[in-house]
Amino acid sequence: MGSEEAKTVADFLIADFENEIQTTLRVIEAVPNDHLDYQPDSKAKTSLGLVRHITLDDEWLLNCIANGQLTPPPDGSDACGIASPADAAARYKEKVPAALNRVRVMSGEKLASVMDLFGMMQAPGVGFLAMAIKHSVHHRGQLSTYLRPMGGKVPGIYGPSADTQ
Length: 165
What we know:
Elements: H1 3-29, H2 47-67, H3 85-104, H4 108-112, E1 114-116, E2 122-124, H5 125-147
Antiparallel strand pairs: 1-2
């Protein structure tokens, strides 16, 4: 992929990611504080684990793209400082748009540069931007399926939900 194409694709993906931010925040903010340990299966993350994963990894992936190098993922344990959906939402609002802006100002050359994901795959930075969106939406979808069993309400995601009509 050439630098012009990489920049064009990145501009489209950045706008797409920006549109997803408010939806992601609505889902995170809908998590009931009294069910942060909910998990539908022993192999699944808890609701707090998913909230942390979405918040930390969206920021991490975007910053890795801006830095041109993937580093080990963040620690999603209690040490991360996110103890509630409100903590996550505050951090997300502060950190994710800032990280996305770092990607926005990247040159086409840098966006077209190949990055390595720990020897498992190589792709241009713009390819990792597409993956970051998919990763975020995937885990947000998981979290949205936890809401009703926890006694919460599902916010509108791509239109109204049964709980918002």
